[in-house]
Structures are given as C-alpha cells and as structure tokens.
Write a structure and sequence with these properties.
By secondary structure, the protein is of the alpha/beta class. The chain has one domain: 3-Layer(aba) Sandwich (Rossmann fold). It is 32% helix and 20% strand. It contains eight helices and ten strands. The chain has helices at 43-51, 79-97, 110-113, 142-163, 179-190, 195-200, 227-237, 273-279; strands at 2-7, 13-19, 27-32, 54-59, 102-108, 126-130, 165-166, 177-178, 213-219, 242-248. The strands form two sheets. The protein has an eight-stranded mixed sheet. Strand 1 and strand 2 (13-19) form a beta hairpin. Helix 4 packs antiparallel against helix 5. It is globular, with a radius of gyration of 18 Å. The mean pLDDT is 97.
C-alpha cells in the first residue's frame, strides 16, 4: 500500500492509496467510497484483493478524509463535483497508468451514484454496487422516512447555512461534509427523482450509456437500503445496466451485522469472496 496524489482538472489534490499485488493478474479495481466514509474503511478489503492478484485504488473525495482542506467552511465541493471531477481524475490516472489492465469499479452507496457523471465509467468491464439505491425517503420504512424528512428537510439546510459545512457526525452520518455535498444528499433524500435529479443538474449525463454487468449487493439489516429504492435506481438511473442482486443475510456475518457499512469490516472477510468470485 502506498499513498499517491491525483490532481483534478481544477487543480484540487485528491489523496489516494494504491494496493499492488506481489504477482499481478492484470486486473484493477477502483473503489468509490460512500458519503462521508474515509478510504481507510476499505483498506482491509483492498489488501485482501491485492493478495489475490488485483491492483486496487482507494481515494477520498475532495472535502473528505485525507482530501479535506484545513478549512472546510466555504470549500467548494458537491456530490456532482465528486463525480464529474474527482472520479474523473481517478479514471484519467487509471487510463494513463494501467491501459492494458482489465478494469472494475466498486461503488459503495453514493460511489455507485456518481458513475453516470463520468464518461470514462465506460472503461470498466463490470460494476459492483454495495448498499446503494435511489435514496428518496418515500422508498424507506415510515419511521426512517420521518427522520430523513426532518433531518434533511430541516437540519441539513439550516446547519449548513449557519456553519458553512454540515457536521454529519453529530447525527452519526459519517464524516463532516462540505455544504454542497450535504445539499446534494438532501436532493437525493427529498426529491422523488433522487439520483436522476442529480444527473439532470450536471452538464453531461452519461448514465444511460452504461450497459455493463452489475452485481448489486445489499444487506437484510441495512435500514437505509430497500428493494424499492434499488429497483428505482436500476430502472430509472441506470436502465441499461445488466443487473443481478445478491442479498446478504445476517447469519452470513460472524457478528451477525452488516448494515450499510460493515460489509467492508475485517470481521466480515468471509463475505468478500462474493466480490472476488465476480471479478476473477
């Protein structure tokens, strides 16, 4: 594992890590993180794949983790910029350094939603989606939907306006977020079109160009991801992807918990073969 710096077209430094195998199978996986989730969460998973011959790249979007500026207030970032600029810089790096490798991309939560914002998502032979969906609150169970409406309808805009960023950790929603990223998250939750609404807000929408085989992994104990939302994303956001679903039940986890993040925890290492078998 070694840290690398990748620069975007607007000269923002993105901090990434490169995991290289001792013997390469000439296959590469890019991991697009979930909202407010540091890349370190994926390190054990990335090392596992490197041990099986894969080159793996993890990175933090601008405003997150190792790509966070000293001052977050007023920092320009959004989920749309994560997709159109940060993810694009990563695919440029992959094109320039691994032109002959077979390429795959894993999108965790928002990491899958930004694929349609980058024309070079077409580089990848196959996608793995983990815990992702159209996050519109109307797709969620009533109790969770109510908290989503209150949190994103009231707390996010007010606190973001006052502080200039959104302290998501106050609400156990991950890392502190740039204001623009929090407001894009608000759109995903409150707008019925959800992901498609973000696609409408960018200059070029490439989501309908993608037709790769896609494995959609979800956990039965994830309170935020339900079949209604997944089907909405796959039928409207990415209608041409060739999808198949893989539900993980809690009995498959040694600690009986997967939720939204824990697929990548080392205690769930036995689950990682689901991905490995898909991309070998």
């Amino acid at each position: 594992m070694k840290p690398i710096s990748i620069f975007t077209s607007d000269h923002v430094q993105i901090t990434a890590h490169l995991f290289e195998p001792s013997v390469s199978n000439h296959k590469l996986l890019v991991i697009n993180s979930a909202t407010g989730v540091k890349q370190q969460v994926y390190f054990s998973f990335a090392k596992f794949l490197a041990e099986n011959g894969f080159t793996v790249i993890t990175y933090d979007y601008r405003g997150i983790g190792l790509s966070k500026p000293q001052k977050l207030k007023g920092f320009k970032a959004s989920m749309r910029i994560w997709g159109t600029s940060d993810f694009r810089a990563v695919t440029d790096f992959v094109k320039n350094n691994y032109p002959k490798y077979q390429k795959f991309c894993l999108g965790h939560s928002v990491g899958a939603l930004i694929l349609g914002m980058n024309k070079d998502a077409s580089l990848f032979k196959k996608f793995i989606f983990v815990a992702t969906q159209d996050a519109f609150a109307g797709h969620l169970p009533k109790k969770i939907a109510l908290s989503a409406y209150l949190g994103f309808g009231v707390a996010v805009p007010i606190i973001s306006q006052i502080m200039g960023y959104f302290p998501a950790h106050w609400f156990r929603l991950g890392e502190t977020l740039p204001k623009g990223s929090a407001l894009d998250w608000r759109t995903l939750i409150l707008h019925k079109k959800s992901t498609s609404r973000l696609f409408e807000k960018i200059e070029n929408d490439y989501s309908k160009n993608l037709n790769q085989e896609t494995l959609v992994i979800y956990a039965e104990d994830d309170p935020w991801v339900k079949m209604k939302g997944m089907e909405s994303l796959m039928n409207t956001g990415y209608p041409n992807l060739r999808k198949k679903y893989r539900k993980i039940v809690t009995t498959e986890s040694p600690q009986k918990k997967i939720g939204h993040i824990n697929f990548f925890r080392s205690y769930n290492k036995n689950l990682w073969n689901i991905v490995l078998e898909e991309i070998l």
